[in-house]
Amino acid sequence: MQDLDALRYPIGAMPVGPPLASDQTQAYLADIAALPQKLAQLVAQWPDDRLDTPYRPEGWTVRQVVHHVADSHMNAYIRTKLALTEENPRISPYEEGEWAKLPDAKLPVAPSLTLLAALHKRWVVCLEALTSNDLRRTYYHPGSDRTFALADVLALYAWHGEHHYQHISRLAERNGWT
What we know:
This protein is mainly α. The protein has eight helices and two strands; from the N terminus they run αααααααββα.
């Protein structure tokens, strides 16, 4: 059995650091743009028994992870637009664990994969147009009592997508599905 922390954080915890350099911004944008196709290539043809396998003991199933990524990135897209159009808006947090228990988390993954492809197409257009001033625009997250700059959001969601992709990819490797 692998270390539970290694299963929970396959690429490590979200790195927090100094403001982004331009080349980092471009790399994060590329990661966000590539995620929908990369995730779809991995799981789109999987049968239900694989989709209903937890990626770790007491963790979400692959199906729940895919739906969670769609839920989370929808929220991030809206938060990005709020930060671009309002002055440090207070965003609404959500209970992601509770969302993963709702009936739509049991749907086939195809709707969330389709949603991610369309969502990321729109989100990336917004992100690519960000100026250095835009990257400093912020929103306030009351759940973490923290203000996030859009530069931080870009890094966070590039990490978030890869984090969950690796949950699934490493599960596939451990089970000989690749």
